[in-house]
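Bug #77: duplicate submission created two jobs. Keeping one. Sequence:
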Amino acid sequence: MDRPKIQILMAVFNGESYLSDQIKSIQSQTYSNWELLISDDGSTDGSLDIIKNAIDEDHRIRMVLDAKQYGSAKKHFMALTEIATSDYVMYCDQDDIWDKDKIEITLNEMLQAEKHHPHKPILVSTDLRVVDSNLGLLHPSFLRMSGMKSSKRDFGYFLSSCLVTGCTMMINRELRRIATRSVNIDKIIMHDWWLSLIASAFGYVYYIPKATISYRQHGDNSVGAEKRSIITALLSLKLMHDRMMLTIEQASEFYNCYNEQLVGENRRQIISYLQLRDANAFQVIPCLTKANAWRDDWLGNLGMIIRFIV
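Kept job's structure:
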């Protein structure tokens, strides 16, 4: 069996506390045909020394995008996506720990997906276990902790929600090709959500209900895990409303970028979702229904209605 090279994209910023452990977890993978591309976003701690030592010790690791600064994870990872060259690309945070069979499990799923859907853009993601800064277990499943389910992975769902976590993703060449189109990155929420929209619109999103990574939670996380509840939602209605408005802004940018390729049901769904921007309280539910943007749990759907109305 052919063993394709996997390019792993790592965005670093002041990650000296955990960076070495993350790199070692990649070096311990059961699948060894990988290349780790590391980009540093102007770190002022010891991150660069750790990276240089890793490069000296392992020819599969190299530094890219030298002397460039991005200021956000989404801009950094989108820039890394543009320079990737392999058939399969994975994304890596600086502070997690990969299970030793993470690449192997994800790649096997990808190859099976491509057999069923040749020449289609495909994204594969997995669950995560949530741990504290010392790797103590906080929750065995990020998905369950977040109150989400994985059964709905169509385009309408990804207009309003995202179950994909970037540090578990693998994308194929066709998805990367479509994703490198010029986009206003300020209009997208995160790179993993954007890639999920593309895959669900023109191809497929696969989800493996198994944790393949220890997802570390600490004070310096750019994006972390949140436990969802009715109480926390009610206490932050304004914030949640603003977040939903961001999904409309992201959908608008998606429509601007891929308008000519969107056809049939997907086109009707995104147009209906964009109508939420000016919808009154009585129009919210019909717009969400036409967009097929409902989540697969009642609490999430109730929260979404409230966020658009408030």
